[in-house]
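ugh finaly. both done.
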Amino acid sequence: MPRSVNAVASKTRRKRILKQAKGFYGKRKNVYTVAKNVLEKGLTYRYVGRKLKKREYRALWIVRINAAVRPEGLTYSEFIYKLNQKGVGLDRKVLADLAMNEPASFKRLVESVK
């Protein structure tokens, strides 16, 4: 009985990997074994990067809120604590946006919390 290799599926699998590796440098884009290894590593970095992005944005929002609250005589932690005590349900993203784009509204918010 002749050997069955299912060349169609193998070629499709390789094409899919090489298509994803398009734009890589050197052998990374056109040698299947190299492309497969590099792509696997790249997909891991992509996953980690999505988590890091969230972390970095939260840190940025905290810095912006802190910078806007300091002239009002509060620290970031005091401000967040007082917001929670008053039951204000604004998240850090919205607070940072208010601090950057609507300083007057943010100042009124800080005064209401004091």
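ok and the 2nd:
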Amino acid sequence: MTIPQRAKLSRGFSLVELLVTLALMIVLATMLFGFSSAKRQRTAKQLCGDNLQKIFLALQIYANDSRGYFPRVTNAVTSEDALDLLVPKYSTDTSIFICPGGRDSAIPDSESLRKHKISYAYFMGRRADQPTNMLAADRLVDIAPKRIGELVFSANGKSPGNNHHKYGGNFLLADGSVTPSWAQLALPALDTNGIVLLNPKP
């Protein structure tokens, strides 16, 4: 006895069904593992914290050579202007100035930061004997003082302040510790009194 043709067709997937299933799998994979996925950005945020701690080592050695002051440059406009003092004497590794969660281009080793765009903001004017103060951070939404609850990083994944899409960023303190933050400031107020807050080039 032969199986009717209609019954044979109902046992398999049509080409359209296979294509729709494949498209859904691609969308789900992109959401879970894509550039802006929460999982990827959590991992990138941890690697970013490692970068900031490596930058701190260079800053600390610089401060030891500069009567306790971290880099200061008169009329600095961006963080590249000030942090350029670290390269190449205090760090030849310029990869530490690029956040793994962002899309900034790599910088050749030992090359001046002023010729490129880095990923981190810098609080210029700090001294090494002020350990609880913020020293650097992921790119910020702007350089205005902030109170707790105000936006410091992008809330929607759009520039500025979007090193980690919409998942916040990191702050480096002057004792070398790194504190993660959501888009809204949860740390003590971001006070710019006596310092110049510098964002990287837009």
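summary for the 2nd one i guess: The mean pLDDT is 87.
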